[in-house]
Structure formats: structure tokens, C-alpha cells
Structures
1.
Amino acid sequence: MRGDLGTEIEALVTWLAAESEGATIAPEQTHPAEREMYALGEEIFFYRAGPHDFSCATCHEQSEMRIRLQSLPDLTSHTGAADAWGSWPAYRISQGLVRTMGWRMRDCFRQQRWPELQMGSDDQHCAANVHGSECRRRA
Ligand code: HEC
């Protein structure tokens, strides 16, 4: 969250992103475990819960929407998903640190008043896997 210090994960992800500059983002969906993760991610994406009855899709399945000045990417579209994946990790001026896409998603969980997303959990990997697969599927 805001004010959290960076960890070795940000450093590792930044190094990996730099090393794979220009590579196509195309997570495999061949192994049953990968398909299982995708299915769980899809379920999380459309699952409505919490005091606002929000799902990820509430904020992320339409184009041209925004909350105040922040535009909301349509993560069900190839372009939205690809832009999201391709733009992390990112240096956040407000944080004074490089942050990961998982870090951004954790704030999404907070905004929809869900329990705190545990970094490195299956939930986080599944949600990310759905967006990655969206990049591949509609490419
Ligand atoms: C209350 C609205 C809201 C909900 C619900 C929400 N998000 Fe977000 N999400 C945002 C906002 C705001 C941003 C930041 C957009 C920006 O930086 O321009 C964002 C950004 C993201 C990004 C980064 C996109 C990019 O282009 O950098 C991802 C990935 C993401 N959300 C995934 C999710 C997932 C997965 C869920 C469900 C667990 C979810 N969001 C639920 C509001 C929401």
C-alpha cells in the first residue's frame, strides 16, 4: 500500500521486464494447471462481493470510463489488457518507487472493499493470468 517500502520483488520484476523488452506477452494455456489458474482468475474478475457489490468488471469491462481523472482500462479488450501488462512495472512519482502490477491490483481490491490481496497468492496470479491470456487470445 501507499508508504510501503519496496522489496526484492520489485527489483526482480524490473530486471525481468528490462531483459524481456520487446518480447511478446503470451502466457501458455496448455498445462491443466494453467487453465485452472485462468478459470479461477476469470471467476475472480466477474465475482461481485463486498459492501459495494463490485467485481473487477464493474470498473474494468467498459471503454472510455474513468474515476475522477484516472481512466479505467477495459481489461476485457485485447488493447486494454495488453497496455496494462506492458506498462508495468512502473515508477510511481506518488510513491517514489517502482511498483508492480500486483501492487496496483492490491489497491483495486482495497477500492472494492475486498479483503487485502496477499502478494504472491494464487488469487493474485490468477487475476494477472486472465489479463495476460487476454493479451494472447485477441492478439
Ligand atoms: C472501484 C473501481 C475498481 C475496481 C472494482 C477494480 N479496479 Fe483495477 N483499477 C482501478 C483504477 C482507478 C486503476 C488505475 C487506472 C490508472 O492508473 O489510470 C486500476 C488499474 C488496474 C490495473 C492496471 C491497469 C493499467 O493499465 O495499468 C489492473 C491490472 C487492474 N486494475 C486489475 C483489477 C482487478 C484484477 C480487479 C478486481 C480484483 C480490479 N482491478 C478492480 C479501479 C478499479
2.
Amino acid sequence: MRNKEFPKNAKCPLCRGRIAPGTTTFTADLDKGVIIVHDVPAQICGQCGEEWFTNEVSHQLDELASDMRAKGSEVEIISFNMANAESVKV
Ligand SMILES: [Zn+2]
């Protein structure tokens, strides 16, 4: 996972492949559990498959991970959109 904002039609810095917006699944190992977030918006290289998240998205993923750490759950499987909808409600 890397953080980077790309302009339109940017090329992958690793392999010069074409980068296109898409969604991916983010997983993180926490001290006591695992968090799995589906439907995370990302910029994905069509050639090497490297994925980049914008600063905003990676910040939200950080928040989700620390929420989960605080709750002490062992496994959390959520959708990025749902997580955002929840955080708006709260
Ligand atoms: Zn690439």
C-alpha cells in the first residue's frame, strides 16, 4: 500500500504501467486482530498491480484500524462505504 495522489493518465512509478481508478480490499494486522475493508477506492496499476490510496482514504483506513483496536475485536470485515456512512451518522 502506498499513498500518492496521481493526476489523470499518470503512469506507475514502479513499472510505467497505466494506472486506473478502481476499488480494492484493504487488510491490516493489528495487535490482536485483523481488519478487512472491502470496496476501498484506490489507484491500481494495470501492469504490476500496485495499489495507491489517496491521503484521505489512507487516513480513514487508519481511523478504522484504531477504532477496531479500541473495541478489541478480533476480526472486523466492513465495507469502506458503510464505514464512512457510519462515521457521518456519529
Ligand atoms: Zn506498475
